[in-house]
Known about the structure:
Blueprint: H1 11-17, H2 31-48, H3 52-60, H4 68-84, E1 96-99, H5 101-104, H6 110-122, H7 125-128, E2 132-134, E3 140-145, E4 151-153, H8 163-171, E5 175-181, H9 198-208, E6 212-216, H10 218-222, H11 227-239, E7 248-251, E8 282-284, E9 290-291, E10 294-295, H12 297-307, E11 319-321, H13 333-345, E12 350-352, H14 361-367, H15 370-376, E13 385-387, E14 393-399, E15 405-411, E16 417-422, E17 433-437, E18 443-446, E19 449-454, E20 459-466, E21 476-478, E22 482-486, E23 489-490, E24 504-513, E25 519-527, E26 533-537, E27 543-544, E28 549-557, E29 565-577, E30 581-593, E31 601-603, E32 611-612, E33 620-621, E34 631-633, E35 636-638, E36 641-645, E37 648-653, E38 660-667, E39 681-687, E40 690-698, E41 704-709, E42 715-722, E43 731-740
Parallel strand pairs: 1-2, 1-12, 2-5, 5-6, 6-7, 7-8, 8-11
Antiparallel strand pairs: 3-4, 9-10, 13-14, 14-15, 15-20, 16-19, 17-18, 17-20, 21-24, 22-23, 22-24, 24-28, 25-27, 25-29, 26-28, 29-30, 31-43, 32-37, 33-36, 34-35, 36-43, 37-42, 38-41, 38-43, 39-40, 39-42
Amino acid sequence: MKRRSALFGGALAAILVTASLATTAAATTTAAATTTAAATTTAAATTTGANPAATTTAATTTAATTTAATTTAATTAASTASTTHTAPVLSPTPYMGWNTYYGLGGDFTETTIRSVADSIVSRGLKKAGYDIVWLDGGWQADESRSAAGDLVPNPAKFPNGLKPLVDYIHSKGLKAGIYTDAGPYIPGKCGLGSGGYYQRDADQFAAWGFDAVKVDYLCGIAANLDPKTVFTEFAQALRNNASHRPMIFNLCNPVTSPDWGNYPESQQSINSWSYAPNIAQSWRTYTDVGFQGDIKFKDVLRNYDANAKHPEVVKPGAFSDPDYLAPELGMSDEEFRSQLTLWSVAAAPLVVGSDIRKLSATTIGMLTDPDVIAINQDRAAVQAVRVGAAGTTETWVKRLADGSRAVVLLNRGDSAKTLTTTASAVGLHGARFTLKNAWTNAVTESAGTISAAVPAHGTALFRVGPARGLPGIPHVTAGIPQVTQVGTQTLPEGAAPVVAGGDELRVEVAVRNDGLLPVLKPTVTLTAATGWTVTPIGKAPLLLAPGQKITLAYKVKLPATAVAGNATLTATTQYEAVGYGKQMQTTVSPLVIAPVPPDGVAALSHHPWITATSGWMSPTIDESVGGGSPISLVSQTYPTGIGVASPSLVRYYLGQQCTKFTATVGIDDAVRNVGPEGGTSIFQVIGDGKVLFDSGTVDRDHPKPVDVDLTGVRVLDLVVGDAGDGGYNDRADWAAPTATC
């Protein structure tokens, strides 16, 4: 069960590490020297103010004074690592590969693994660097250990044992990884455990020929073990294996993340940074990034934020691990591109969790993009830090070995935005800068502003360094079309537009020139679906000077017959760059055309929604979320309803056709005897951005009735939030949600 998505701030990480961005020294060849140098350089640069980004961050966070003790502790930990480091540097840059967990679960065989290994080669992933084929849980027999004490593969899945499979993987030029647990096998609580057999299992993995071992902690937490102690012992066993075989150690204790319970800090995955860099090649920094086949972008952000807390301990051969890449398992292409971008600048291991054989050509293209991978594999092995405040839009920067910067402009929000930062903010100085867009390969020149039009849930990734020689193509940002008004209603900043047949929209496209030279004859052509009419409002200027921004507006009319579904607005921006001729950029804004409003007295759970989210898993109709049981509040069962977990938003289009909304809200009986943690939520009914009903805290024993006037409401939001005790057990119900229209 997933709990509330905790969004971790990165201010401390920025204070600790952005100073080190100013140094352009290459990483030293030994991990111990790198760690010592990082701690020394950070202290020196902070004292001398060598990096403006560090100063900016410190000035913009009021928490700076309260984190001094934490900063000292982190620096001490890094210093200690330099003197006690024993883990070998087996992969100086983040390792890459594939794991069975999210795409296949435990349902894999020798034939399956051979097939995936073949696909990794044939689809170009091996050439791009993805060279580990990793078996997660599910490879073991039902009786996982023989009477003699040896681990036993499942004979039905692996009739020839594991050694021939590993040999096949090696024959393809790939490496092999395997899974176990740090605790003892406990039937009914975990499927596999190495507790009491560390050296024996390490020797066996090496004898089979494995190159990497993931060590989980399900059995460990069930047996109430100390993670630092048992993981250290396992690491020692791997290093001392009888075959003297180098094996990557991925330390994994996700079930002790705060989302799972109030564990002592020493047991939590967020504490792994304090000891794991000395013993492992990577360590998980939070819980799983999702469920098998169900990965949400909000959980990707949650894991990234947790992973960003201690960049100062990352070094060549030792990397924070925010979990696997998960394309085509619930996220859009744009959201997955963002995950890959964030993992790359985090110097995180790039391990694909989806079934390689089923991925689209678009996804394979993203996974193998050479510029993005080069940033991840940069030999300095520096983890990105946030510059400036946390929020809906953010800037993250990673110092690269050649002194340039990888800069991410992140849009966590639900609408497209043009985001900007400056070269000085990311630790660069000068008058001219080359910007290479890692995803589009476009190379432009800026006078110091780094800008991009970033879609909702999207990122822009630039490699930024000093410009030399003749002036380059000016860095012009062509905005993504923005719906700013629907009818007479002005959309709030950051709101995703809801449009319907017959609507008239105001759409704006902003264009800015951040280059050193002017651009001539800027024009923007806006196009929409067949049957829509687009009318420009005003004219473009003849020249767009350096530092200048223009906003062009359009009136867009939807036909009354517009069918519910997806549509797009496309802006084609053209201009002339002196010395480079005509340039063109195309930006696309996705739109959702709402379904028709409800009619009569309607059960909203049976009416199509515009969008629906749930804190874990997905909203369910007429059932409690995740359990498959009927909607039930204090022993009363309701035939209709919506089951969600906090936080949640379910949005409907009413088109000003309805007058009343009624429901009963509460915590489902499915968790009546689970806990005592959590089990409280806050329910809100919001019409066109205005709160019409607020339940206050609702617990398991006291459902509340809802009766709301909907007169004049165009868009209805049903919102569930956590009541402050964590999302665990917040299986919330909108029972009998009814609209009168």
